[in-house]
Amino acid sequence: MRIGPQYGITRRGLFKGVLAGTLVARAAPEKSKVVIARDPAPGAAGGSPDSSRVLKMLDRAMQSFYGGDSPIDVWKKVVRPGEVIGLKVNCLSGRGAATNPVLAEAICERLQQAGIPRTDIVIWDRLNSDLESAGYRVASRKDRIRCIGNDMAGYDTELAVYGSAGSLLANTLAHTCDAVINLPVLKDHGIAGVTLALKNLFGAIHNPNKYHTNAGDPYVADVNMLPPIRGKVRLTICDGLTAQYEGGPSYMPQWSWPYNGLIVARDPVALDYTGWQILERKRAEKGMKSLRELHREPLYISTAADSSHRLGTNDPNRIDVVEV
Amino acid sequence: MHKQRISSNRCKPLQTFNYHLLFALLAAAFLVGALAGIRMLSRRAAEPPSWFPESGEAFGWTRAGETRSFEAADLWKYVDGDAERYRRFGVRRTLTLNYRYGETVEAVADIHLMQTPGNAASIFESESSAGSRPVALGDAGRSYGQSLTFRQGPFFVRLVAYQDVPQTERALLSLAQAIERRLARQ
Hints:
The complex is a heterodimer of chains A (324) and B (186). Chain A is α/β, with parallel strands linked by helices. Chain A has 11 helices and 13 strands.
């Protein structure tokens, strides 16, 4: 670029322009990106999702989120060889409303291709029985991908405290894993409104039953402030292959539908807000009252975004939803 | 020279001690066993007669697994935070059992014993009837096709099938009717 009055650009003018641009950029906070990848028909014969289609959906979502042409290289932006990666699935409600094993397998495949050996991958949730009922095979041997419940792996002996939350953290989170990929399910919750990224971490503590009063507010937000959770959860991939808009967290087939999508975000609050809106739209389509009308609005989402927590944003003007 | 002997006399206290020890161990084992037996009998006496049909009692259905039981305070271990909703409606105990219908349908049956028939009616009515049709079960019943709920006295029952095939709804209804007959005897 040539500078000079004869080119219409002076040094002073250039400097002012750069300064103005910088100020504008600083004034407008960066938006939280939420990518939704969908497939009109990801199912295989027999009702299970087709693994290759789920993998393609996952790749599309991840490449859109992180950018890049290689579905393997994007995972290198999430994890590093030498780290132990935990996949926090949601199996409480068993088959039908749990993180689909096909999705977990697809992620494990990409992690290994990105340089994470299978011995450094741990699929985990509250109970072995929950994992098994959701179709996972419990495996604790360290020479393979582990799949274990907190009832086997145990809990830390030191109490983790933030705000109203005081809990023992699962050893898998506190000690085994260096990073966690959060895999909630797109569904509503009879008490908290919705159960998505933030609430899935209730499976990392020993006493989630204590935190459901007042619609889980501020407990869900406070639990997510516990340092090992805040520090280790790197990414959320919400399983929306089958979503549920009423009757959750238990599986209610009459209120489930094939959303056929995956929702990817680093900002768990933005993801929860986006997922909530998806569920509300479905409820409206089915002629059901909104969660707000039923006094079942997920209050914890705005708490998680407030100045005391800053876990993310629930401002739709600051959320960039990209559908691919 | 005094010889040290390991004589029978010297061994006698040791042998006596061994017998005493052996007797004490046997007595302790007997006591522990008796206590365990008493506790087991007490627990069995406190357990209700099985609310769940045996395999074959409902045509085509077989039990698949063990019955799990949750008192109200522990229900969260089964249904997480939704336990709060059941507790608000006065649940006392929940039993759950998996079933299989031939090779085509797997289902779970949850039976919630509420404090009163009124509580059972309240929780039944609190759930949306959208997409359901009434069925003649207990005091009131709804079929959603792949799931079914009904209430009978203080019981609130939910059946959920994991496969939606043409025979699912009819099969669930027959299982529900078998449960209804069992609960009627309570």
